[in-house]
Design a protein that fits this description.
It is built from three helices and no strands. With 105 residues, the chain is mostly helical.
Length: 105
């Protein structure tokens, strides 16, 4: 009976909920900029490995035209992907800086 009475007593604490995002990520544009920066940080080593792999394909092709075409296509797609990711980062920084200058004036 005593064990049941202990379960009925509530010991509530006065706690506040804290924002899990830091103060620098409290706005949506800054959150997207940070997410894009994290994506670039992850993508750069992957792009590097893909380009090294593409170079290995060139070496292992040994003059075989079909294998050279595969290596060229792989390298082309690696470079295009790298340009997309890095230009997205550059465009994001450019737009964020322009917007912050327009809002402060």
């Amino acid at each position: 009976m005593a064990a049941l009475s202990l379960a009925l007593v509530a010991h509530a604490q006065s706690t506040t909920l804290n924002n899990p995002l830091s103060s620098s990520l409290s706005s949506i544009p800054s959150f997207f900029a940070a997410a894009l920066h994290a994506m670039v940080e992850i993508a750069v080593p992957i792009i590097t490995v893909a380009i090294v792999y593409s170079g290995a394909l060139f070496v292992f092709a040994q003059g075989n035209q079909a294998k050279l075409e595969v290596a060229k296509r792989n390298f082309f797609y690696c470079v295009i992907g790298a340009l997309f990711i890095l230009s997205a980062q550059a465009l994001s920084v450019l737009l964020a800086n322009t917007a912050s200058q327009l809002l402060t004036n």
